[in-house]
Specification:
This protein is mainly α. 72% of the residues lie in helices and 3% in strands. It contains 17 helices and three strands. Strands 1-3-2 form a three-stranded mixed beta sheet, sandwiched between helices. Helix 3 packs across helix 7, helix 6 packs across helix 10 and helix 13 packs parallel to helix 15. The longest helix is centred in the C-terminal third of the chain and has 32 residues. It is globular. It holds the Pfam family Zincin_2. This is Zinc-dependent metalloprotease. One of its GO terms (molecular function) is metallopeptidase activity. Keywords: Hydrolase, Metalloprotease, Protease.
């Protein structure tokens, strides 16, 4: 179990402060981000042709501690019911009722501190996200989803890159609004991701011997990452069944992240005049950082996420070029239409399977327009 209160306390205590701005400047940033999220929604809906919400709420704007609290709320919605199932699956421990309570209480606080430390690190890096499981619904129905932007991080990056502030803010909004379009315009996508996540967590191997092996693998992953290798904790602690599920999850997340990256750049030239400068400098920032920062990124799988952006964007660009936006949008027809890991790397395989031979025989007019 995880002590969520400890996670919030640890995260908000450890997180670094954001850039120093006056109260008036902060209010201006918040107001503009809300305005630009609404503007970006219209651009994304028109460009992608996706049937997303017609008039969604503006983005929720948070600071770094607010992002930590929001993520803990989202984790609780998803993980608490699963933790109960996993506890039942595990059964009584060797120490008996009272002993198990003590061990669980200590363990949950330690885990809460670990989660808080990870969130503190991430809270200074994330620019925005579409939160599938927020706001928590007290009526028991599915959460409606929420678009969140982390204002101090956006201001920090635009200052660091020395780019036009309004252009950068709209550019970020285009990416995040694409995620809102995906999860509100594709009826089955939210449930698919949630089900795969649930299966992944429930597939944890609770056998003590297997857990010891996972701990050893995690320790070796840390050592490898420190040496500059490619190991990460996510791969190290998985069971064989989880690896299979994670392949499906990684494929769909590579698609949605790559789609967001493609749209923010493809829409950009008309509405974000400095988009090429922003992309060039932002890409350099993604690839930079000191040795310790790179080690942490490898351990937490952040570098893997950066590869997802690139692979997914290449897939979307290739399909749109050869099949047009309407051909690409067949990807949202059903879970069976999603590309596999191999198909993302080799888009022609997906086009042959889902779009048909027209995708490789001719370039439709709409591809030239895109």
């Amino acid at each position: 179990m995880i002590d969520w209160n400890v996670a919030v306390q640890a995260g908000t205590r450890l997180v670094r402060p954001g850039p120093q701005v006056s109260h008036a400047e902060a209010r201006e940033v918040v107001a503009e981000l809300r305005e630009l999220s609404t503007l970006a929604h219209g651009h994304v809906r028109e460009f992608t042709g996706m049937a997303s919400e017609l008039d969604p709420d503006p983005a929720t704007i948070v600071d770094r501690p607010g992002w930590i609290r929001a993520n803990v709320d989202g984790f609780r919605v998803v993980l608490e019911p699963l933790m109960e199932q996993m506890t039942e699956k595990r059964g009584p421990g060797p120490l008996g009722g009272a002993g198990n309570l003590v061990v669980d209480a200590v363990g949950s606080r330690v885990t809460g501190m670990q989660v808080g430390a990870i969130l503190a690190y991430m809270a200074s890096r994330v620019l925005g996200q579409y939160e599938l499981f927020l706001p928590p619904d007290p009526d028991g129905r599915a959460p409606t989803g929420r678009l969140t932007l982390v204002a101090p991080n956006i201001v920090h990056v635009e200052q660091e890159l020395r780019v036009d502030a309004r252009d950068f803010r709209l550019w970020v909004c285009l990416h995040e609004e694409t995620h809102r379009a995906q999860f509100t315009g594709v009826p089955w996508l939210r449930e698919y991701v949630q089900n795969q996540t649930t299966q992944f967590l429930l597939a944890s191997d609770l056998d003590p011997g297997a857990m010891l092996d996972r701990i050893k693998d995690a320790a070796e992953a840390v050592a490898d990452a420190v040496r500059g290798g490619d190991s990460n904790l996510i791969d190290a602690i998985q069971s064989p069944e989880q690896r299979e599920i994670l392949d499906r999850l990684t494929a769909v997340m590579t698609l949605v992240e790559g789609h967001g990256d493609y749209v923010m750049d493809a829409v950009g030239p008309e509405v974000v005049p400095s988009v090429q400068q922003i992309r060039s400098r932002f890409q350099g920032r993604r690839e930079g950082g000191g040795r310790m920062d790179k080690t942490i990124r490898r351990l937490l799988g952040i570098d893997l996420k950066m590869k997802q952006y690139a692979e997914g964007s290449r897939f979307v660009r290739r399909v749109v070029t050869e099949a047009g936006m309407s051909g690409f949008n067949k990807v949202w027809d059903s879970p069976e239409s999603l590309p596999t890991h191999l198909e993302i790397k080799e888009p022609e395989l997906w086009m042959e399977r889902v779009v048909g031979p027209r995708a490789i025989d001719a370039v439709p007019p709409e591809a030239n327009e895109a």
